[in-house]
């Protein structure tokens, strides 16, 4: 694997710095897929998330609204979805399978407290290259490191079955900030209830009363710009990832 030595120029660094997410930034220029994989080859379990626009926040869809009323309205859509889903879905989740219901709602585009991540750096790169006119970036973090803040004695990624009560406490939260007891963002392994999640090696962060993720909650959180890779592909005539089909085994 080649060693990446070229850095972003001052103009690119200023653009990269507009990202609202507070975290470590790797200011290296990624020119090809091999260099990208080299940078992403780090020890420990890692999760990745691609943003097509470096100016996007790192928070779930239901909690991006400015007012508590709007956030509560977004979260309340899940109840309507469940009522309709029990009739329309061929195999709806059971009444007590709350995480399955929220995953399905997320799949169909409803706002939820879940934020999609992937265990595959190439899947994250694909989503980072979806906006050809803006610089994308890829976030990475250690999910066990994220959960250490909430579970210091036994940090691990939450399991839908073993940690069902803990997950339900998060899913029952309203759209208010803070409160008497703060619920920090946690990493959750999904229930494998869709081929899309399996194909994309999908995992989730579940957000509580601290809506947006940053390095205060996840000290390992870091980001890398993919603008250099998009430019290089455009200059040599290579089809961009957003123009390509993502194989199911990525």
Question: How would you sum up this structure, described in words?
Answer:
There is one protein chain. This protein is α+β, with helices and mostly antiparallel strands. The C terminus is likely disordered. A 4-stranded mixed beta sheet has the order 1-7-4-2. A 3-stranded antiparallel beta sheet has the order 3-6-5. Helix content is 33%, strand content 12%. The chain has 9 helices and 7 strands.
Write the layout of secondary structure elements.
Elements: H1 10-16, E1 24-26, H2 33-40, E2 47-51, H3 68-88, H4 98-107, E3 114-118, H5 121-128, E4 137-141, H6 143-148, H7 164-171, E5 186-188, H8 195-199, E6 202-206, E7 222-225, H9 227-235
Parallel strand pairs: 1-7
Antiparallel strand pairs: 2-4, 3-6, 4-7, 5-6
Please describe the structure with a list of short key phrases separated by commas or semicolons:
disordered C terminus, 7 strands, three-stranded antiparallel beta sheet, four-stranded mixed beta sheet, 9 helices, 250 residues, alpha+beta, 33% helix
Could you state the order of secondary-structure elements as H and E?
A: HEHEHHEHEHHEHEEH
Distance separating the two termini: 20 Å
Spatial ordering of strands, largest sheet: 1-7-4-2
Mean pLDDT: 86
Shape: globular
Concise structural overview:
With 250 residues, the protein is of the alpha+beta class.
């Amino acid at each position: 694997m080649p060693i990446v030595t070229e850095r972003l120029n001052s103009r690119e660094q200023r653009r990269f710095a507009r990202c609202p997410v507070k975290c470590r930034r790797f200011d290296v220029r990624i020119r090809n897929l091999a260099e990208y994989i080299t940078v992403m080859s780090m020890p420990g379990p890692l999760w990745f998330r691609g943003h097509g626009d470096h100016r996007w926040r790192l928070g779930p869809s239901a909690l991006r609204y400015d007012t508590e009323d709007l956030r509560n309205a977004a979260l309340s859509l899940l109840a309507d979805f469940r009522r309709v889903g029990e009739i329309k879905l061929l195999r709806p989740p059971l009444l007590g399978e709350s995480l399955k219901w929220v995953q399905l709602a997320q799949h169909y585009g409803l706002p939820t407290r879940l934020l999609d991540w992937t265990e595959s750096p190439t899947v994250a790169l694909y989503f980072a290259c979806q906006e050809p006119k803006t610089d994308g970036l890829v976030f990475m973090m250690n999910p066990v490191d994220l959960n250490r803040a909430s579970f210091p004695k036994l940090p691990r990624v939450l399991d839908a079955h073993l940690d069902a009560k803990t997950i339900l406490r998060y899913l029952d939260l309203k759209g208010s900030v803070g409160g008497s007891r703060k619920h920090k963002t946690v990493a959750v392994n999904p229930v494998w209830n869709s081929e899309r999640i399996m194909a994309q090696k999908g995992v989730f962060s579940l957000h509580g009363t601290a809506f947006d993720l940053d390095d205060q909650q996840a000290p390992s959180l870091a980001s890398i710009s993919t603008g250099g890779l998009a430019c290089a592909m455009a200059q040599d005539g290579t089809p961009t990832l957003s123009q390509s089909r993502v194989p199911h085994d990525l």
